[in-house]
Amino acid sequence: MSNPNAAKSRPPKKSDIKALEKRWGAKVWAIGFTGVPSLLIRGQNRLGLSPVQLNVLLQLLDHWLKRGNMPFPAKKTIAERMGMTPRYIQQIIKELEDDQFVKRKFRKTSVGDWDTNVYDLGGLVRKLRELEPEFTKAK
Questions:
Q1: Which CATH number fits domain 36-138: 3.40.50.460, 1.10.10.10, 3.40.50.720, 3.40.50.10090?
Q2: Are 121 and 61 in contact (CB under 8 A)?
Q3: pTM score, two decimals?
Q4: DSSP assignment, residue 67?
Q5: What is the pLDDT of residues 75-110, one digit of tens each?
Q6: Can you give the three-state secondary structure of 75-117, one letter per residue?
Q7: Where along the chain do its domains lie?
Q8: CA dihedral of 85, 76, 24, 8, whole degrees rounded to 10
Q9: Distance separating alpha carbons of residues 129 and 76, to the nearest angstrom
């Protein structure tokens, strides 16, 4: 028997989007939204994520607009959003990389200067897929 709470691989219905827009208000909704699996929020402790690590992942997810295009926000942007220093954000991203949630890919501009990193979130996706059966079974 299928679990009605299990993740479905379907795009959201227009009626679902409209309901969310109505909940938050058109002006708030027009600024944008981020798709975050509930499993990331519910499984935070099980995944071993600190509140700051989870927030950094959410910031990265906010920049992940298309499946094939990994996010590349500046650490300064994330730091400003969170009220922290870019150096601290760099440390948190290093922790997330060490724990295999993200993989940094270094980039250079066309003139050879360092550019923002690209963050491959494949590790986060893998970890959530591995955790899913545990949560599905608990339901």
A1: 1.10.10.10
A2: yes
A3: 0.81
A4: T
A5: 999 999 999 999 999 999 999 999 999 999 877 677
A6: HHHHHHHHCCCHHHHHHHHHHHHHCCCCEEECCECCCCCECCC
A7: 36-138
A8: -100
A9: 30
